[in-house]
């Protein structure tokens, strides 16, 4: 009886050591495999993660030079709290053709009314509805990598 007990004990110990080792190895693999962590972090798929705050946006800096033809111009003002969803588009309240003059804001160009097969609509085209998809506000961040890009001669 005592012998069986000892054998059982030894087996349990071996199993436990094995499990701990497997766990350590798994963590090791995750830490060193160069696995990318997603922007969602540990947030489960069925949970909405709060958006990160826009970091130190540059305030009213005036219209910015464009660097190449067809560049979506940079947003030269803060956009915090500007709602853009199914019902409201705060950007269009100033940049839509109806209100731009009264708001002293540049109008969206006619391309914003064109569908992808070249039809011109009477209202903003769905593919140009979510403004911040293309137009970005600026922050004073240091570039992550060196960049030697220079604009074409005619824009310098
Ligand atoms: C309260 C009015 C107002 C709202 C709302 C607004 N803007 Fe503006 N926006 C302006 C004005 C005024 C200018 C011109 C700034 C200047 O001349 O310094 C401007 C400039 C811009 C420009 C630069 C255009 C160019 O030709 O360089 C872009 C891009 C822009 N806004 C995008 C946006 C986006 C995207 C939103 C929504 C997230 C938005 N704006 C909301 C008033 C507004
Ligand atoms: C798919 C990308 C895209 C989206 C989405 C988009 N734009 Fe643009 N926008 C551009 C590009 C590219 C230009 C410059 C060339 C042109 O006019 O098409 C531009 C130009 C502009 C200009 C300057 C117009 C001029 O005549 O110089 C303003 C203002 C502007 N966009 C505002 C907006 C607003 C407000 C929204 C949302 C309702 C929006 N854009 C959505 C790509 C986009």
TrEMBL record:
Protein's GO biological process: anaerobic respiration
PTM per Swiss-Prot/TrEMBL: Binds 2 heme C groups per subunit.
InterPro entries, alphabetized: Multihaem_cyt_sf (IPR036280), NapB (IPR005591)
Top-level taxon in the UniProt lineage: Bacteria
Subcellular locations according to the entry: Periplasm
UniProt KW Electron transport keyword: yes
Purpose of the protein: Electron transfer subunit of the periplasmic nitrate reductase complex NapAB. Receives electrons from the membrane-anchored tetraheme c-type NapC protein and transfers these to NapA subunit, thus allowing electron flow between membrane and periplasm. Essential for periplasmic nitrate reduction with nitrate as the terminal electron acceptor.
Name listed for the protein in its UniProt record: Periplasmic nitrate reductase, electron transfer subunit
Lineage: Bacteria, Pseudomonadati, Pseudomonadota, Gammaproteobacteria, Aeromonadales
